[in-house]
Design a protein that fits this description.
The complex is a heterotetramer. Chain B is mainly α. Chain B contains 14 helices and 2 strands. Chain B has a single domain, classed as ABC transporter involved in vitamin B12 uptake, BtuC (Orthogonal Bundle). Chain B has a two-stranded antiparallel ribbon with strand order 1-2. Chain B starts with a helix and ends with a helix. The N terminus of chain D is likely disordered. Chain D is 38% helix and 20% strand. The longest helix of chain D has 20 residues. The chains are: A alpha/beta, B mainly alpha, C mainly alpha, D alpha/beta.
């Protein structure tokens, strides 16, 4: 992976050298949080969350609104710093690491609100993440792949803001995936999409997970979508892990339905 | 309800503290206290009109000084030429500026008039409104400011006669300036009540936060914009009216207020009344005490440096700090 | 892969100069630009020494510095005049203390360096402190007034650096005449050194060499910035301008990129200040006044925020009108011009012209027109 | 040669330049003749007058412009200079030093003016002096200023700080006592004037017990007034300048501070006593060479300077100190040109250096039978200084008056422009240690 040639490129070398990877103790766990707490003044968003993701795992995160899903994601990407507790990635403590440094380590994210660069063309959007680690012919190749994977070939010169909601989601997933991350976080990727657009995204995520071994944490309310793609599901309620298991276990568990429907079942002690 | 009550509790406590400090100060070191409170009032009055136009409506109004000029000239001319008593003259100043603000809003800021003309002639809107377009509104109001200053010079000449300062002085400090402190408190109270306790106030805040939803709820957002801008202008005009007896009546008088106003609004943060008054309470004493200790030059530099540090170390301005403090206190209990 | 002959030097150069971030990528644009440059070269021969016009070229650099910082990095700064003034004063102090040609040449670099260093310090204070959008604007606005208030009171004799008195509000007088080069090797005096030139048709004409220096510097900086903004660095800046958080999550050090852009902008503003002081042989604190600090924002807004060409052409146009309109109504006319131009063309004049002339970017409907349904284009 | 024709020509060439290179043909004549073509042969006398009519200094600059036009009109009605009509070339520099530099450059290179009047503030003078020195242009600077400019083509004919403070300070010392509190605008003029107060205090065994400098942008004086009240001086010397500082007088009055105030700047320039309600300016003593209320035959008699000024400008607000200097320097120039018999600037300068003197008719500051002289060596004027007092109703009367020569350059520094072609500005701190 050659460092991109132009001197003023500020993007860091995305892929870490093999040596650096080796020193971390080689566990299967890719990401782990220990008693992760985040409070906003009086309100506790996450309440000592212990949560772990294995390499290559596709985990879905569900739970009622305000359960702390987005906060947990932001603590992992570094946009928020926790009040207490720690986040480990590949065995390294990244609790206080800057967001862009975490991207170096292989964490990438698609935002809840689709945020592609509206004024730029599809090609310019796709090129941005790739330009920091690829150059010349290789860069053109990766950009073309990224656009094709998003189903937007032929749209290279189109201004991103004029794309449909679904197309923008696909483009942003391509951009996040083009960093060749180990862990890709998606925040409600199919919210507000039509049925066939959801199917396309589901197929896209599964392909990235199986073909390229990218681990996922996907926040999504649509249980059919979750059922289709999830290896394992975690249910968050009032800032803490409430249940964890396969989609079947979760769907059949009455307590989960109750917290969704709002009856307070007094916890599961 | 519980939260509203506790918020009021802090508000009242703060006001009582400020008044108590004033009374104790007036007894112990009257002159210094009057000067500190005058400095606070100057900043609050300079900023109150802008807090609405910039703070709420997202229009960087570089012609804010010239709105104060309109108020000052209208008051002075109505008193000197029409023989109107001073208090009435001040109301005239505020009203004339409010009307002027209305015209500016309709013709330039919201583009209602040009678009109406556009519809008649070309069949489409000519311009986009300036709300929440910070940079563009800055250029537009900079042009407006040039026009107003030179226009005032052409129409009224390089200066007009100034009205006398009423009342005498206590402890070597002009009574009129002490009265100004009281009037400032009154203005803050009225604006606070207007924006929090009246349904017009809620309509304004709804429109400003999300125009689409406000429209969906049946709020006439066009009228709300118009009235809010007019009120902002009227307050700036009232500031001009209040300072008319104190300043030399020249077309360039607005420039003295511009910096204090912008700094106070930005340092103050989101909320109009709480932000502006708190930044006044912070920056005013710094200006007054440094001037007292090290001379006027040091006072001026201290104010500017304090503003830079506040902008740097208080994200979200002072209102941000207050919100965080309040959350912590409530969270803690 | 057709073995295209290695691209000729010109196309390689054009590839570097052109890109989505700059206006004017067609051959037509380059011929038009060449024409304008030739016209500007001929202008002093016809327009009377061009010594007045050189002011607009010098201020064009200041416009470019804001266009880079605001137009590309999205940082609306009122502080460019701070670096402009500091560059000018540094040039004055160094050249007064070392009035030899080498000293003066050194003073030019000192001025640019001073502008860049102060910009880096202020930038670090703001960007690494998490200060964003309107707060940055107000901090830079306040910094100009701190400079104005401070410099106005440096009239006392204690405010003398070496033999250069800062001069307070009266300004720093008697800045040496700009003479570049090394003693003995080659030196040339650019200011107050009109050259006699025999032109066949017009007879003997005198021209101001400083005009050509500022024209050359402006052209070089313009082309340099075109290369910069079309490089990967330029694309990162544009991405930051569009959506800072999204760009951070692509692994870019946003704070460092903004700081680098802000520092380059400071250096450019410093260079403009140096040439301004050299041209007028004088500098005073009025460059820190709010009125002068607002002008760059006006130039870049009127010309077109997202275009270097817009910034340069609008600077020259607005300043020409502002300085040549006399009479009582001058300020009213300038104010009205600004108001109308931002009302009718908020995106700026040059981008508007560019849209009219070139095809520019497509719209999704252009691609998804009924007869070519999206599926049809699937590979 | 009105303003518009210049900008139109400029516009055409710029427009032409932008269009096509080979435009030599259609742009008409070659550029303006070289600047040194001898104007004496042409039939008009070209005078450049650049005074602020808008911007911060418009209030004090406009009367200067009007007085110059009055003098030119009178001279032309009376047959011009040496039979040649005066052709004024004017523009409004808008109190903007950049415009002053451009216009000065244009008036010297393109217009080739025979003499130039330009600028109110010291900052403007210093901004254009490099251009003037370089082109050796005859230049009249007509504002009262800190003094010390010894420049062989510049005639600083306004009174200096030493002359103005030298007239009012000794009087107040006699009347009220030795303790002085100085407040001054925080820039060159204010700081140098404060130095002169110390020098004069030393000469009149008075004592400066407090000194304060106020930024030009400051308009609230609470702390300054309370410090003055504490110091309790016998009188205050005020060198405040500009619109914002006028607020001091109003705030002083409404704070009940009624210490007498000596000034070299208030009332005479910005006519505060006409603009602010009494009694704000009560008890203020201005040491000036001229004010509208100066009671001399040439000034206030029927058909005098004041009548002629208001006849030409019925709605002018006031006839201020600098206006009279613009007026009499135009007549001095006329006399010098007629004495030299040519418009060649070196000869006119030599004629001016031969010592021109004007009586009350053309220099209204001089009383009946009195006169003012242009000192050839220093290019300054020995003025007839007046101390004018404003009472409770702001009516202004003369208290004392005396002739005061320039002194600083002539006696202390020894600047003699008839011998050397100097171009420097001297400051009192170089010559008086008490000015430290």
């Amino acid at each position: 992976m050659s460092e991109s040639s132009d001197p003023a490129s500020l993007g860091p070398n995305v892929r870490q050298t093999a040596a650096e990877m080796a020193t971390g103790d080689r566990t299967e766990t890719l990401l782990q949080t220990e008693d992760l707490v985040k409070t906003f003044g009086g309100f506790t968003a996450t309440d000592s969350v212990d949560f772990a993701i294995e390499e290559g795992e596709l985990r879905c995160l569900i739970g009622p609104n305000g359960a702390g899903k987005s906060t947990l994601l932001k603590l992992i990407t570094g946009t928020l710093t926790p009040t207490d507790g720690a986040v480990y990635y590949n065995g390294h403590d990244i609790t206080d690491l800057a967001p862009n440094k975490r991207v170096d380590r292989g964490i990438s994210m698609k935002f809840q609100v689709p945020s592609v660069y509206g004024d730029l063309t599809v090609r310019e959007n796709a090129r941005l993440p790739i330009q920091q680690f690829a150059d010349g012919a290789e860069r053109r190749q990766l950009v073309r792949e990224s656009i094709d994977a998003a189903g937007l070939s032929g749209y290279e010169q189109v201004e991103a803001s004029t794309l449909s909601h679904g197309q923008q989601q696909q483009l942003e997933i391509s951009m996040a995936a083009s960093l060749e991350p180990d862990l890709l976080l998606l925040d409600e990727p199919v919210a507000g999409l039509s049925v066939d657009e959801r199917a396309k995204i589901a197929e896209r995520v599964t392909r990235l997970n199986e073909d390229e071994g990218i681990a996922f944490i996907v926040i999504e309310h649509d249980t059919d979508f979750v059922g289709e793609i999830a290896d394992k599901v975690t249910v968050l309620d009032e800032g803490d892990v409430f249940r964890e298991g396969s989609i079947e276990e979760i769907e059949s568990d009455p307590a989960v339905k109750r917290i969704y429907l709002g009856e307070d079942d007094g916890g599961d002690e | 309800m519980k939260q509203a009550l506790s918020q009021a509790r802090y508000g009242i406590a703060a006001v009582v503290a400020v008044v108590a400090l004033f009374v104790i100060g007036a007894l112990a070191a009257p002159n210094l206290t009057f000067r500190v409170y005058y400095a606070v009032s100057f900043i609050v009055l300079a900023a109150i009109g802008l807090a609405i136009i910039f703070g709420i409506m997202g229009v960087i109004n570089l012609a804010h000084g010239e709105f104060i000029l309109v108020g000052a000239y209208a008051t002075t001319l109505s008193v000197t030429k029409l023989g109107v008593p001073l208090p009435a003259g001040m109301l005239v100043g505020a009203l004339v500026t409010a009307l002027f603000g209305l015209v500016v809003e309709r013709v330039i800021i919201s583009g209602y008039v040009p678009n109406w003309i556009g519809q008649q002639t070309v069949g489409r809107d000519l311009i986009k409104p300036f709300y929440d377009r910070l940079a563009d509104s800055m250029v537009a109001t900079f042009g407006l400011s040039l026009i107003m200053v030179q226009g005032a010079r052409i129409v009224f000449g390089n200066s007009i006669n100034q009205i006398g300062v009423p009342f005498g002085s206590t402890a070597g400090y002009p009574d009129y300036r002490i009265a100004l402190v009281g009037i400032t408190a009154g203005v803050l109270a009225v604006v606070y009540l207007l924006f929090t306790r009246t349904d017009f106030g809620t309509r304004v805040r709804a429109t400003m936060q999300d125009e689409q939803t406000a429209m969906a709820l049946g709020i006439n957002t066009e009228r709300t914009y118009m009235l809010t801008f007019a009120i902002g202008s009227g307050l700036a005009g009232f500031t001009g009216a209040l300072f008319a007896p104190l300043l030399s009546m020249q077309p360039t008088l607005g420039s003295q207020f511009l910096v204090e106003a912008f700094v106070a609004v930005v340092v103050g943060g989101a909320s109009v009344v709480v932000g502006t008054s708190l930044s006044g309470l912070m920056l005013g004493p710094i200006d007054a005490l440094f001037s007292d200790e090290f001379g006027e030059f040091a006072g001026r530099i201290a104010l500017l440096v304090a503003a830079m540090l506040a902008l740097r170390f208080l994200p979200g301005g002072i209102t941000g700090v207050v919100d965080r403090l309040r959350d912590r206190m409530e969270g803690g209990s | 892969m057709v073995a295209a002959s290695t691209p000729s030097a010109i196309t390689r150069l054009r590839n570097r100069l052109e890109g989505p971030n700059t206006i004017g990528n067609s051959r037509r644009f380059w011929t038009a630009l060449a024409l304008v440059v030739v016209a500007l070269i001929a202008f002093p021969v016809v327009g009377g020494t061009g010594s007045q016009f050189s002011l607009f070229l010098v201020l064009g650099l200041l416009g470019l510095s804001l266009s880079l910082v605001w137009g590309y990095a999205g940082v609306l700064s009122f502080g460019q005049v701070v670096f402009f003034g500091i560059g000018a004063y540094t040039f004055g102090v160094v050249s007064i203390n070392v009035p030899t040609p080498a000293g003066i040449t050194g003073a030019v670099f000192a001025g640019v360096l001073a502008g860049a260093v102060v910009a880096a310090l202020l930038g670090y204070f703001m960007f690494y402190g998490g200060v964003r959008d309107v707060y940055v604007t107000i901090i830079t606005l306040v910094s100009t007034l701190v400079m104005l208030t401070f410099m106005a009171q440096t009239a006392g004799s204690e405010w003398t650096i070496g033999s250069a008195a800062l001069g307070g509000f009266n300004g720093m007088p008697a800045i040496p005449l700009l003479t570049l080069g090394i003693e003995g090797v080659f030196t040339f005096q650019f200011v107050f050194n009109d050259l006699e030139l025999f032109v066949p048709v017009l007879g003997v004409v005198n021209i101001d060499p400083f005009y050509y220096l500022s024209l050359a510097v402006l052209l070089a900086v313009y082309l340099g910035l075109r290369v910069l903004v079309n490089m990967d660095f330029g694309r990162v800046l544009v991405a930051i301008r569009e959506d800072e958080d999204r760009t951070r999550m692509f692994g870019y050090d946003v704070e460092r990129a903004k700081l680098v852009a802000f520092t380059i902008g400071g250096g450019l503003a410093g260079l403009s200040g140096v040439l301004y002081a050299a041209r007028n042989v004088y500098i005073d604190p009025s460059v820190f006044q709010l009125y002068f600090a607002t002008l760059p924002v006006v130039w870049v807004s009127v010309g077109g925020r997202k275009s270097l060409l817009g910034a340069v052409s609008a600077t020259v146009a607005v300043e020409y009108v502002r300085l040549s309109l006399g009479g009582e109504l001058a300020l009213v006319v300038v104010g009205a011009l600004l108001l109308v131009s931002i009302l009718v063309l908020p995106g700026g004049i040059i981008p508007w012209i560019d849209d009219k002339l070139s095809d520019g970017r497509l719209d999704v409907s252009d691609v998804e027109s009924p007869e070519t349904p999206p599926e049809a284009t699937e590979p | 040669m009105s303003r518009d024709s210049i900008s139109r020509r400029g516009f055409v060439t710029a427009g032409g330049a932008a269009l096509v290179a080979g435009l030599a043909g259609c742009s008409g004549s070659s550029s303006e003749g070289a600047s040194t073509d001898s104007a004496s042969s042409s039939e008009t006398v070209k005078i450049g007058v650049l005074e602020d009519q808008s911007g911060n200094f418009a209030l004090v600059g406009d009367p200067k412009y009007k007085a110059s036009m009055l003098a030119i009109e009178e001279i032309n009605a009376d047959g011009g200079i040496d039979g040649k009509e005066i052709e004024p070339v004017t523009a409004d520099p808008q109190s903007d030093n950049q415009r002053y530099q451009e216009l000065t450059r244009e008036y010297i290179n393109d217009e080739a003016v025979d003499a130039l009047w330009a600028g109110y503030s010291s900052a403007t003078r210093e901004a254009i002096r490099p251009i003037i020195n370089r082109n050796e242009q005859l230049y009249f600077y007509t504002t009262q200023y800190e003094g010390g400019v010894c420049d062989w083509t510049t005639f600083a004919c306004g009174p200096t700080a030493r002359q103005q403070l030298g007239s009012v300070l000794p009087y107040l010392r006699e009347e009220f006592g030795p303790k002085i509190y100085t407040i001054a605008a925080d820039y060159n003029f204010g700081q140098l004037s404060a130095d002169w107060v110390k020098v004069l205090a030393n000469e009149n065994d008075a004592e400066v017990i407090g000194e304060e400098f106020i930024p030009l942008s400051e308009s609230s004086f609470g702390s300054t007034i309370s410090r003055i009240q504490e110091a309790d001086p016998d009188f205050v010397m005020s060198m405040l300048v500009g619109a914002n500082h006028t607020a001091f007088y109003e705030q002083k009055a409404s704070s009940g501070l009624d210490v007498p105030i000596g000034t070299s700047t208030a009332m005479a320039q910005g006519y505060e006593h006409r603009r602010i309600d009494p009694p704000a300016m009560a008890n203020i003593y201005a040491g000036v060479n001229y004010m509208e209320e100066v009671p001399t035959a040439g000034n206030t008699s029927d058909g005098g300077f004041v009548d002629r000024y208001y006849e030409k400008y019925p709605d002018a607000p006031y006839l201020n100190e600098e206006a009279e200097t613009n007026y009499f320097t135009t007549y001095m120039y006329k006399e010098a040109v007629e004495q030299a018999g040519t418009l060649e600037q070196p000869d006119v300068i030599e004629a001016l250096e031969s010592g021109i003197s004007l009586g009350t008719e053309r220099a209204p500051e001089a009383p009946e039978g009195g006169s003012i002289e242009l000192d050839g060596a220093t290019h300054h004027v020995d003025h007839h200084m007046w101390v004018m007092k404003a009472d409770e109703e702001h009516t202004v009367e003369a208290v004392t008056n005396e002739k005061i020569p320039e002194q600083f350059l002539s006696e202390t520094v020894g600047c003699d422009l008839t011998q050397e072609t100097e171009q420097t500005q001297y400051t009192p701190v170089d010559y008086f240690e008490e000015a430290e």
